[in-house]
Amino acid sequence: MGQIPFDRRPAPAVPGLARTVSRRGFLVTSLAAGFAGAAAPLRAEPILTGDDGLVAGEVRVPVAGGLMPAYRASPPGPGPFPTVLVIHEIFGVHEYIRDICRRLAVLGYYAIAGELFARQGDVSTLPDVASILSRVVSKVPDEQVMADLDSMVDFARAEGRADLRRLAVTGFCWGGRATWLYAAHNPALRAAVAWYGMVDPPAWDPKAESVLSVLPRLSVPVLGLYGARDTSIPVAHVDALKEKLTNSATGSRSEIVIYPEVGHAFHADYRKTYDRAAALDGWRRMRDWLRDHGAA
User: Fold this and answer.
1) How far apart are CA 56 and CA 4, in angstroms?
2) Within a domain: residue 130?
3) Three-state DSSP state, 223
4) Cα separation of 182 and 164, whole Å?
5) Angle at CA 230, nearest 5°, toward 208 and 40?
6) What pLDDT is attached to residue 15?
7) Which residues are catalytic?
8) How many domains, the chain?
9) What phi and psi, each to the nearest 5 degrees, are found at residue 177?
10) Which structural domain, as residue segments, surrounds residue 118?
11) What pLDDT is recorded for position 122?
12) Which of 138, 131, 130 lies closest to 203 in space, CA to CA?
């Protein structure tokens, strides 16, 4: 589908960030096609949502230092539509993330997913998870991610079809942790849904903030969806997060759901990790969460 023109206003300044990215430039200027090969083995029948009847396609989001490629999908018409920022996994904005945007558009949302690794490298060219983590993900600072998500909100505002009074965020895996951080960063959000987001600081940056450390700043209601058999996110850490939220005085009204029989990436229908029952239940819970907290 065609793109809608937008006002290329400069992104908000972030101290120290513009100087860093101006030296590096953008290594990714357009989105990769297909599913992430590094996530193999892939399922033979992933969920595919067509874009018929939607306004969907690749766009460029003005951010500090240049233009970030992104995928945006929405219903047709002037809107304004409730808006969801979609934060990708370590595999970037590949076909699964684009399909998540289309699924949300079918439900009536304006959904946008930016390639948040665009400055550091093209993960679609890397052969495995270890290479992606060491060569790209480990070089992406949290403050850059928060600023780029803010710029995605600015882009949606400039298009004029997004209702930012009904703004939400959801993210998967790497994006699940970023969802918690962004919910603490942007109190204008109405709701957030974090799919199996890391609770502790990432192994590549032990000094980074943990999800537990941002809870005192959290006022946005976050729904966390986790698998008890996730070998990368110990369920004891999720239990600790759940307990701290229960005893928290922040008033965020956040909740944790732990699926007892599933592991990591249970919603990733293009991977062998997919668990249909948990994925469908999680999606239903996300829809209800957004609706019940004024983001629908």
Assistant:
1) 10
2) yes
3) strand
4) 15
5) 95
6) 41
7) 173, 230, 264
8) 1
9) -65, -45
10) 20-32+42-292
11) 96
12) 138
Number of H helices, E strands in the chain: 8, 8
Residue 7 lies in a domain: no
Query: Smallest Cα–Cα separation from 255: which of 289, 283, 291?
Result: 289
Q: How high is the pLDDT of residue 252?
A: 74
Residue 156 sits at φ, ψ, to 5 deg, of -60, -40
**Below-50 pLDDT ranges, the chain:** 1-23
CA-based radius of gyration for the chain? 18
Q: How big is the chain, counted in residues?
A: 296
Closest CA to 197 of 101, 282, 108, 98: 282
Query: What pLDDT does 275 receive?
Result: 98
- In tens, the pLDDT along 18-54 reads 434 444 579 999 999 999 999 999 999 999 999 999 9
The CATH number linked to 83 is 3.40.50.1820
Report if residue 110 sits inside a domain.
yes
Q: Which helix (H) or strand (E) holds 258?
A: strand 255-259
The confidence score (pLDDT) of residue 212 equals: 95
Q: What is the residue type of 102?
A: R
Q: Note whether residue 276 is domain-resident.
A: yes
What's the pLDDT at 16? 41
* Tokens read off for 98: 């684009």
pLDDT digits (tens, 9 = 90+) for 210-242: 999 999 999 999 999 999 999 999 999 999 999
Q: Name 47's Cβ contacts closer than 8 Å, sequence gap at least 6.
A: 99, 103, 269
Give CA–CA dist 276/268, Å, rounded: 9
- Token pair listed for 238: 């999720």
Which amino acid is located at 62 in the chain?
Answer: P
